[in-house]
Specification:
This protein has about 280 residues and is α/β, with parallel strands linked by helices. The chain has 2 domains: about 140 residues, Rossmann fold; about 120 residues, Rossmann fold. The protein is about 40% helix and about 25% strand. The chain is built from 11 helices and 10 strands. A 10-stranded mixed beta sheet has the order 3-2-1-4-5-10-9-6-7-8, sandwiched between helices. The two termini are about 30 Å apart.
């Protein structure tokens, strides 16, 4: 049984990601964990008024979220009573990524599904959206669903290998299972540095062929182009339904203030992105 974590603040973006996940995993036995987090420093005057003299503000806020989650789960259990789905609600008062890490570890989560609005301004570029923070700090496959995207099935997946990324067969195991489940075709985008060794490209091509045996992926080698532009072109020309990227956690820590390429890909994407993490060396 798959275990899917969906953090939610009940916003339009979060609810759209939830709806996408319910359709995406159709036909599989899944437990969906809905996590609602209240982070420190977010009190409002209204929150203080809602708390009675006999309960803390924390208890009042979490009770509110528990009620919302309860209503949501009741609705979903009615709607999906004939599916292989079960639903659980979790509330927490904690740092956002700390709360997610705890749930991932204690419940052995297979996938996290989150929505994103993309970058809206300088503050989000510098400090990162919640989705970006989860990618940086949580070691779990993350399906990022852009706002307004509706699941319509899958025919083609793109695996993007950015300039600074070496293909690692150990990192793409969730992708192999995904291809088998949806029976989709795979293309690989290799962003190639101008001075790259051609022998290295040949060796990598053989690794890709072995890893996706029976899939026969087509590899597109592109040089001297911005990664985002290359992705957008292939998405439009080939009708790609999902992009898959792999991330090194240490790169995010080093480059987050300087506009990580991975963040640029996520913020500009018009299709869902599956982010996989490389295993530690």
């Amino acid at each position: 049984m798959k275990k899917i974590l969906i953090p939610t603040d009940f916003s339009e973006t979060a609810m759209n990601a939830l709806e996408f996940a319910l359709n995406f995993f159709e036909g599989e036995s899944c437990t969906f964990y809905f996590l609602s987090i209240y982070t420190a420093g977010k009190y409002t005057t209204g929150d203080l008024w809602q708390a009675s003299g006999e309960e803390s503000v924390n208890d009042s806020l979490l009770l509110n979220k528990k009620i919302k989650l309860g209503v949501l789960i009741d609705q979903l259990e009615q709607k999906f009573q004939n599916k292989k789905y079960s639903f659980k609600g979790i509330t927490d008062y904690d740092d956002f990524t700390d709360a997610i890490n705890q749930v991932v570890e204690s419940n052995k989560i297979n996938f996290i599904v989150m929505g994103t609005d993309g970058t809206k301004g300088l503050q989000e570029v510098v400090f990162g959206t919640h989705t970006q923070k989860v990618i940086r700090k949580v070691d779990c496959p993350i399906l990022v669903v852009p706002k307004g995207i509706v699941f319509k099935g899958f025919n083609k997946i793109l695996l993007t290998l950015d300039y600074d990324y070496k293909f690692n067969p150990s990192a793409i195991k969730p992708l192999i299972r995904l291809i088998a489940k949806h029976k989709v075709s795979l293309d690989v985008l290799r962003m190639n540095k101008e001075n790259a060794n051609s022998d290295d490209l040949v060796k990598e091509g053989k690794k890709i062929e072995r890893s996706f045996k029976g899939t026969n992926p087509e590899v597109h080698i592109i040089s001297e182009v911005h990664t985002v532009d290359a992705i957008n072109s292939l998405v439009q020309v080939m009708g790609v339904d999902m992009n898959v990227i792999s991330a090194k956690k240490e790169l995010f820590l080093d480059r987050v203030l300087f506009g990580s390429s991975v963040f640029n890909i996520i913020n500009s994407s018009r299709i869902p992105i599956l982010v996989l993490h490389e295993p530690p060396e």
